[in-house]
Design goal:
Layout (H helix, E strand, L loop, with lengths): L18 E4 L4 E4 L2 E2 H4 L4 H10 L5 H13 L5 H7 L8 H12 L11 H26 L13 H10 L5 H14 L6 H11 L4 H12 L7 H12 L5 H10 L17 H16 L4 H19 L9 H11 L7 H22 L12
Antiparallel strand pairs: 1-2, 2-3
Length: 365
């Protein structure tokens, strides 16, 4: 048997037309288009691009957005089920359970035909924000806010979460967050759901595989870890000791380093910019300034110890942004999933279209 690589690091498992990463140059493209050019579009447009392979024209986008907004309302039975969830749990547990239950309301849950999956696609993208916002408000004993079909994907989520309309900049920030979270090639959750899809299991089952994998602290859960770390550090006075202690004990500094990127994560640069703008609008730069100082200390610690610098990844400044948007840390992974669902669906569709069951071998020792 050929030599194996632990964690499948660098192993090419399949062909894809969905995204491209150059980890040395710090490049990320969706369908051949640089992420820097896509963040000024709407999340609906980027979802369409990922799933259908092209940026929609005005008519296509209008029809797609109308379908999404029509499907935002959650089934009453599903809402009643959420009341029995453990509100002490990380919210991704609730989202995972909700999607599993929701599959039972689908008229043909086991149908993986292109027509059936197109319908399921709309509902899944539309429902994720409503489920997460409903869970949050239930957990706090607040009245549920129904979705507003006049609002964009990001703006509507913040409205359902808070009960008040966000500012234009906050709505823009949420849209950008969903776009930046939407797709990232064969990350663990995407690979997991492609394995599920490769067995010709249904779309809901594949998405649940992705949700279960996203929860881990070394994947989507890292965003929550960043937010908790910021709380633990609290003050710039505590940064140096925190960083030094963690590095000495070979403990991970949340939000730094990436398996693929050997330079600055291009998504992190965009998050840094929008997080700074939101902090300025709120006239409260505490979290952003704290994060900048952590980044500076990390860089100097690595250089002084003659190590290669470890750069911020996608989770670092997104965690800062969430804190300034008033999104609690236990919602962070689920908010990540709201953006990632369109990329997940694109990968399921690609797997179904040219399928071979994914079945690697193990090296026996």
């Amino acid at each position: 048997m050929d030599q194996f690589k632990k964690g499948l690091e660098g192993v090419v498992a399949l062909d894809t037309q969905i995204s491209f990463i150059d980890g040395v140059q710090g490049i990320l493209k969706y369908r051949g288009i640089e992420i820097e050019k896509l963040v000024d579009l709407s999340y609906d447009a980027v979802s369409y691009l990922l799933i259908y392979g092209k940026i929609p024209d005005a008519g296509e986008l209008n029809r797609f957005s109308k379908k999404l907004r029509k499907e935002r309302n959650v089934n009453l039975h599903l809402l009643n089920m959420l009341k029995f969830c453990d509100f002490e749990n990380e919210s991704l547990d609730v989202l995972r359970t909700a999607i599993s239950v929701y599959a039972h309301f689908d008229e043909d849950p086991h149908d993986i035909s292109e027509q059936a999956n197109a319908r399921k696609t709309i509902r899944l993208i539309a429902l994720f924000p409503t489920i997460v916002a409903a869970f949050y408000r239930m957990a706090h004993g607040l009245e549920l806010i129904p979705p507003d079909p006049s609002l964009s994907h990001g703006e509507n989520f913040l409205y359902m979460l808070r009960g008040t309309l966000p500012t234009a900049l906050e709505a823009e920030a949420m849209e950008k967050d969903f776009i930046l979270s939407a797709e990232h090639e064969l990350n663990p959750s995407t690979f997991a759901l492609r394995i599920t899809a490769s067995t010709l299991s249904d779309l809901h089952s594949a998405i649940i595989s992705g949700l279960c994998t996203l929860k881990g602290s070394l994947h989507g859960g890292a965003r929550k870890g960043v937010m908790d770390m910021l709380d633990d550090i609290g003050s710039p006075d505590n940064i140096a000791a925190y960083v030094q202690e963690h590095l000495e004990h070979k403990q991970k500094i949340m939000g730094f380093g990436h398996r693929v990127y050997k330079t600055y994560d291009p998504r992190a640069l965009i998050y840094k910019d929008i997080a700074m703008k939101v902090a300025m609008e709120k006239s409260n730069g505490h979290w952003f300034d704290l994060a900048k100082e952590i980044e500076s200390v990390m860089y100097h610690e690595m250089v002084e110890n003659k190590h290669k610098p470890i750069y911020p990844n996608v989770d670092f400044y997104s965690g800062v942004l969430y804190k300034d948007l008033g999104i609690p840390s236990y919602l962070a992974t689920s908010v990540f999933a709201i953006g990632r669902i369109s990329g997940w669906i694109a990968h399921c569709m690609e797997q179904y279209s040219d399928n071979r069951v994914i079945r690697p071998r193990a090296h026996f020792i």
